[in-house]
Specification:
Helix content is 42%, strand content 15%. It is of the alpha/beta class and 429 residues long. The two termini are 28 Å apart.
Length: 429
């Protein structure tokens, strides 16, 4: 338990069990060099069984070549000598239950009072740089409740990692290079024309939400009528850039209502402009991990227009994936995987561990991204993906369907203002 600043009751008894085990090694009752990492000290499932429980005998008996109950009896004998232990008993096949003296609990309360917010804080993560990426919602509108669980889980995990001494970077990935932001720009251009007095009708396929009305007014103030009748090629980029910036400002404000703040906002557009995907591809090619190949036909009924196309494929199967993955499309542009691969490579350059918080609907992409990170970092930087379940929102007992494209979604801000930040966070966790 090295590295604890303030010992807790659990860490104290973990040290006590370690000392008993050391004594058994010294007496020849237990072989040395056993892996004790899975030895746990925790509350028993049934409080009637005692105050603390340990699986030490269950974990160590097999590698020690002995019977779990026999080893448990020897551990119990050592723990029973402690004045703060009222009783130590072997339960079932070899679990150990402890009952502690009342003075132990009152002493722990005094420790908690004296330590305050530092109680339980540790430095077990000292020197370990962890990048936690969470939320990363497309910048096409305000935060809605569908984004909420991943936001809260990611923020809580980052805080726990900091509390245990890790150096944590909270990161948000802005998907501002795909087709959805072009749709956003076209939607904002409509609101821009509306702000200049034109009567508009939002066609199907664009974002109809009123949240773009103030964006349109800001665009009208900045550009006047310059882009009213201009071809799309002239206005798409400047309208897109300013609208994405406005959406990110709105998203930051929504997250702040939950007490969530990120350290880094990484742009997919900037990533591609900096040629990061090309750098990742070059690294993989240098290790012969990219080859020209043809994807398998889609499973199930093959579409009539499907044709086999030769594409650059990453040897993802060498790293545990189900099939090799294309990094570029037939027109030479990057696939979503190709860009995402490069983004994770960028994060891994400044971290010892990557953690992503994803919705359960992204479960199918976990293996391929982990494979890419393993290949690009040569196994030195692991990627841990935490999947969180989707949020179902009910009003009056009836489920609400949420779609940003259709404009019928419940914003995170509305719910936080109605029930409070702490209620939302607790419910999501």
């Amino acid at each position: 338990m090295n590295g604890w600043i303030e010992l807790t009751l659990y860490s104290e008894f973990a040290d006590a069990i370690d000392a008993v085990l050391d004594g058994l090694v010294a007496s020849g009752d237990l072989p040395g060099g056993l892996d004790r990492r899975n030895v746990a000290v925790e509350p028993p499932r049934d409080p009637a069984h005692g105050d603390l429980a340990t699986n030490a005998a269950m974990v160590l008996a097999k590698p020690a070549g002995t019977n779990p109950r026999a080893l448990a009896e020897k551990i119990v004998a050592g723990l029973s000598e402690r004045p703060d232990v009222v009783s130590a008993e072997v339960a079932g096949p070899g679990f150990i239950n402890l009952r502690l003296a009342p003075a132990t609990w009152t002493g722990e309360l005094e420790t908690i009072r004296a330590a305050g917010a530092a109680y339980g804080r540790s430095q077990i993560g000292h020197g370990v740089r962890v990048n936690v990426e969470y939320v990363s919602a497309n910048p096409t509108g305000p935060m809605h409740m569908g984004h909420c669980r991943g936001a809260v889980v990611g923020d809580a995990l980052a805080t726990l990692l900091e509390y245990s001494g890790h150096s944590v970077t909270r990161e948000y990935y802005i998907n501002d290079a795909g087709g959805q932001v072009d749709v956003l720009a076209r939607s904002a251009h409509l609101r821009y024309r509306e702000a200049l007095g034109e009567t508009i009708e939002v066609p199907e396929g664009l974002y109809p939400g009123d949240y773009l009305v103030p964006v349109g007014k800001a665009l009208a103030t900045e550009f006047g009528d310059r882009y009213v009748n201009a071809p799309e090629a002239d206005w798409l980029e400047p309208i897109r850039t300013r609208t994405v910036a406005a959406m990110m400002e709105m998203i930051r404000a929504d997250l702040a209502l939950l007490g969530i703040h990120h350290d880094v906002f990484s742009s997919e557009a900037e990533l591609q402009a900096a040629k990061k995907p090309e750098a990742a591809e070059a690294k993989l090619r240098a290790r012969d991990l990219i080859y020209q190949g043809v994807l398998e036909a889609p499973k199930g009924e093959t579409p009539e227009d499907w044709e086999p196309v030769e594409l650059p494929l990453f040897r993802s199967t060498q790293f545990g994936d189900d099939q090799d993955r294309p990094i570029r499309k037939s027109n030479g542009s990057w696939t979503y995987f190709g860009a995402d691969m490069a983004y994770h490579f960028q994060k891994a350059e400044k971290a010892d561990l990557l953690i992503d918080i994803w919705g359960a609907d992204h479960a199918g992409t976990v293996k391929r991204i982990q494979a890419a990170v393993s290949a690009l970092t040569e196994g030195k930087v692991p990627l841990d993906v935490k999947l969180v379940q989707m949020v179902r929102l009910l009003r009056g007992g009836e489920p609400l369907k949420m779609s940003k494209r259709a404009g019928n979604f419940v914003t995170l801000a509305d719910v936080v203002r109605e029930v409070g930040k702490d209620v939302v966070r607790f419910t999501m966790l």
